[in-house]
Amino acid sequence: MVMYSIQPFIKYGNLKFSISGGICSFAVTITCILRATVINMVLLSAMITGGGCTDSRMLNVDQKVLYMYSFTNSPAAQKNQGIIIDSRGNILLFDQPRKWNLPDKNSTLTGEQVDENLAQCKSTGLRIPETELLKFSGYIDNLASSRVSALKSITSGRGTYYYCCFSFNAASGIYKQVTIREHGDTDCENLNFYSRKVVEWINLLIKDLPVQHP
Asked: Which of 95, 132, 154, 186 fits a 20 to 30 Å CA distance from 43?
């Protein structure tokens, strides 16, 4: 049986010594365990946060467009205007483009079609801050994997206000247009938690721009 005696200690640096000169192994062991635990917690926290990254979704350098808002007069499409938010955070404006590429029955666009649409846009001179852009680009995967409510035809004569984002397949270079909100002559909504937050954000971006407001 090992016997322990309680003795007064003198602290020197990170170690504690008994007055008799022997190291109190119990005190040193507890001190080391506590320090190791704190260090491990700090390292684990750094690993979880990705070394300072604030968003789990890093922008793909090949993806050129993230979000779009548009207003059209249905069915004649006498007016077609809106904004595109590109992957650098630039807010681009389009107004009555001569030839606007629409997605196919699978809601997809090729990279060439997207480039053609971008060529018909002009800069507003506005740019979204990087942290804000990363935050909202991080919602795209969630929106793309969510269901959209059934499309209802209302034919109010108001035209259609349309909000969408784009997911991107880097291997094929194909964009998928994802509906976030559509209302006016038609009505449907992405059922994801972030959809209304994105709509509110886009409404703030277009508030002072020369586009039709909802």
From this structure: 132
